[in-house]
Amino acid sequence: MKGTPGNEKCGFSKTIVALLRDNGVEFGGTTSSRGRDVRQGLKRRRLADLPPVLYVDGELAGGLDILQEMAAEEGGLKAQLGLE
């Protein structure tokens, strides 16, 4: 994400944080500007120029649009992410 939870630096990050909190999902955040290792990892995954995305147990869950769709599905976001 850009920034940290509670101090988001872009609208996508702020919206994802709110969506996760509103759905009772426990999470942590890593800012993409935090250090060289994070930036290099994002570049290897070709995510450096994309909006923030969510990983669950190291697997890409999706970006904001996908998370919003999951939240609208039966059972809500936690169930769709396999966290219940």
Automatic annotation (TrEMBL):
Organism field: Aureococcus anophagefferens
Domain Glutaredoxin per the UniProt entry, residue ranges: 8-60
InterPro entries (UniProt xref): Glutaredoxin, Monothiol_GRX-rel, Thioredoxin-like_sf
Name by which UniProt lists this protein: Protein disulfide oxidoreductase
Pfam families (alphabetical): Glutaredoxin
Record's signal peptide: none
SUPFAM superfamilies the UniProt entry points to: Thioredoxin-like
PANTHER family named in the record: GLUTAREDOXIN FAMILY MEMBER (PTHR10293), GLUTAREDOXIN-3 (PTHR10293:SF73)
